[in-house]
Amino acid sequence: MSASLYRWTTSCDDSGCPGDCDLCNRNIATIRTISTLISAMEAAGWHLDEVSTEDYQLFRHEDGISIIQFYGWCDVEDWLRGVVFDDPEVSEKVDRIFNSDF
Q: How far apart are CA 42 and CA 40, in angstroms?
């Protein structure tokens, strides 16, 4: 059984970007705490993988099959704010986490 790997990015597509371009810098203004994003992802059934680094964040779904990779914490936030969850309870949990810290 192979894992599904999804890549999500809304930051610049310049592979040489040091992370300080205008598009990447918005994470300073919008992300308050990484722990809030991790909590919101966990509420949605995604758990941060130990192989995550400064350059990317890898989350594994609780289904044991799906994987999603982000290239910055701002991308994690954008995905959480933009995704439509199938389960309304999951949406409510994620919204509560965001509203408690953001």
A: 5
